[in-house]
Design brief:
Blueprint lengths: L2 H13 L11 E2 L5 E2 L9 E6 L8 H12 L5 E6 L10 H12 L18 H10 L9 E4 L5 E5 L8 H11 L1
Parallel strand pairs: 3-4
Antiparallel strand pairs: 1-2, 3-5, 5-6
Length: 174
């Protein structure tokens, strides 16, 4: 390899993020069609694995409040229902109805999706490979920056309107 080629290669490598998440892998949209995280390129996205029959299910109301507070500034909150912890309804139609009726949700939501193990969605597999994050329970949260990098991950106990999350979101929006 010539010195010039090596220099160009080094520059290209330094310009790339240290890891690359799978942002183009389609999720089934609970409303039909598909969603990809890359469709929100340039915007912060909070990805949350959810379940309808969990002790943390009440966080849906704060997820909606967070989305309402910051959506006009560009924040996307994506709910990813999963039955990996055996606490989700079996039918996507029932999940959608439950979330709309009980919590007034209108934020983007995927179909029921695996978030851990061999069957995990490619985005969640890339989180494990690239940053070592695997949801340990329902309502784990991943904040993706406008540039597609992981800003921070949060466990189930961190509430969506906590200062830990809102400070990071506000910093990304400013």
């Amino acid at each position: 390899m010539s010195r010039f080629t090596a220099a160009v290669f080094a520059i290209l490598l330094s310009a790339m993020p240290a890891w690359s998440l799978e942002l183009d892998a389609p999720f089934d949209n609970i409303d039909g069609g598909e969603l990809t995280l890359s469709q929100w390129s340039g915007q912060p996205v909070l990805v949350v694995n959810t379940a309808s029959r969990c002790g943390y299910t009440k966080q849906y109301s704060q997820l909606q409040d967070l989305y309402d507070r910051y959506r006009d500034e560009g924040l996307v909150v994506l709910a990813v229902p999963s039955n990996d912890f055996k606490q989700e309804l079996a039918d996507e139609g029932k999940v959608k109805e439950f979330c709309e009726t009980q919590f007034g949700l209108d934020l983007p939501m995927t179909g029921i999706t695996h978030v851990k193990g061999k069957a995990a969605h490619p985005f969640f597999r890339s989180l494990k490979t690239e940053v070592g994050f695997v949801p340990r329970w329902n309502f784990n949260k991943v904040l993706i920056g406008p540039d597609g990098t992981v800003v921070k991950t949060y466990g189930s106990r961190t509430k969506p309107l906590s200062g830990a999350i809102t400070r990071e979101v506000e910093a990304l929006l400013n």
